[in-house]
Amino acid sequence: MATAARPTATALPPGPSRLLPGQMLLRFRRRGLLDTMGDLIGEFGDIAHFRIGGEHMVVLSHPDQIRDMLVTHNKLFKKGRGLERTTMLLGQGLLTSEGDFHLRQRRLAAPAFHRQRITGYGDVMASYASRHAAAWQDGETRDLSADMMRLTLAIAGKTLFDADVEAEAVEIGQSLTDVFEAWSLALLPLGNLLIKLPIPAARRFRVAKARLDATIYRMIAHRRASGRDHGDLLSMLIAAQDTEGDGSGMSDEQLRDECLTIFLAGHETTANALTWTWYLLSQHPEIEARLHEEVDRVLSGRSATAEDLPALPYTRMVLAESMRLYPPAYALGRRALVPYDVGEYRLPARTVVLASQYHVHRDPRWWSEPDRFNPERWREGSGEPRHKHAYFPFGAGTRVCIGEQFAWMEEILVLAELARAWRFRHDPTHVVALSPMITLRPAHGMRMTFERRR
Predict the structure, then answer these.
(1) Which of 26, 68, 154, 219 could bridge 2 with an S-S bond, Cβ 3.0-4.6 Å?
(2) Contact present, 50 and 15 (Cβ < 8 Å)
(3) Is residue 4 pLDDT above 60, yes or no?
(4) Are the C-beta atoms of 154 and 165 separated by less than 8 Å?
């Protein structure tokens, strides 16, 4: 079990030998973060140490260690390098801010995510799914991941900001892709400087950021000018006052940071979760048939509503299992504020500590047949996961995703609403591969043949 620093621990954890300067940086560039973490876990076990650009870095893969970092000793850490660099795009939003400022912003945003308010978004989620699917043609083959991105973008715009952003979906989607493709550059040593250079990836990043900023600031300006409470997240954030602090509200810049953070996180991760779920269902017709049976029985041909959530347990199990195998947030990081002990090892202050949902979610110590898509493992009494903290698609501890319940409701309602009318068959000529950038996207989209259910 990890604890705060004790004088008995001195050694660094095991890791790859440093035969050549920059070898780990080259390895990351060649293999990527996800595969490199898997390599280190396979070679060194639950804790592996390496250095990049003079920084100590450690990969943890035992749930006890991850729990201690995120929950038990969370005050001994701040966000890691990845989210430090995310400030270049998101500023000081909930995902990136630290300390008292983070607590203040979370207090101001929390009412927008109370269960009662989230329930009110259910009709919008289901109706947008139905309306979006009305444009599909029976038998056509198309990129389902792009459809899920456009759908969740529209839902996020309407529920969170009462704004119609569907007309801008293509431009916003391209802006996000440009930002994500520049991410590997931003993560390099001195990445905060590299992103300012006149090179193509950095130039695309700056243009994309300006495009996203323009959308968010336009919504803020329109809302302030109208002075009307729309009952959505933006209205609540504009009206919020820090009654436990100095009584002040948010500036336009603070509103921009929070809105952009929630806007992007709220649609990107959900779209990926739905895309991977449809792919898995296309590969497992017996599970797809059980999902259709539940949806048909509960909905009887009508649209889904938030009141249907308790009657759709198998739908939720399907999504839980999909996020186990393909977690949209596939890795997380923290930076140690002080020297920190993990068992017999001591991590120096400022060590970047990484943990991978993707790899822990597939560890055979905590999961039976870990690579098998088996929603039944989520049935009460199944005994899985075998460790409470072996499953953390939304993080854990005080910085668990504030929109977790929003995401669960959207995923369940959209999955049910689309499944009652459609099934999707994976195009056998299409290659499925992972693209682990900021989130876990399919590398080449997800080509599916759309079949209307009779």
Answers:
(1) 68
(2) yes
(3) no
(4) yes
pTM of the model as a whole: 0.89
* Assigned token pair, 383: 């005994």
Q: CB of 180 within 8 A of CB of 440?
A: no
Strand order in the sheet with 447-452: 141-143, 447-452, 422-426
Q: Give the residue with greater pLDDT, 121 vs 88.
A: 121
- Could you report the per-residue pLDDT of 375-422, keeping only the tens digit for each? 999 999 999 999 999 999 999 988 888 889 999 999 999 999 999 999
Residue type, 284: H
Q: What is the mean pLDDT of residues 367-372?
A: 98
Distance CA 286, CA 307 (A): 27
**Identity of the amino acid at 7:** P
State how far the Cα of 356 lies from the Cα of 391, in Å rounded to an integer: 10
Q: What is the DSSP secondary-structure string of 331-400? A: -EEEEESS-EEETTEEEPTT-EEEE-HHHHTT-TTTSSSTTS--GGGGSTTS--SSSGGG--TT--GGGS
Token pair in block for residue 153: 């973008």
Residue 372 has a CB neighbour count (10 Å cut-off) of 11
Tell me the CATH number for domain 2-452: 1.10.630.10
Two tokens, residue 162: 């009462």
Q: Is the pLDDT of residue 196 over 90?
A: no
List, for residues 57-94, the tens digit of each pLDDT value: 999 999 999 999 999 999 999 876 666 667 777 777 77
Q: What count of residues does the chain have?
A: 454
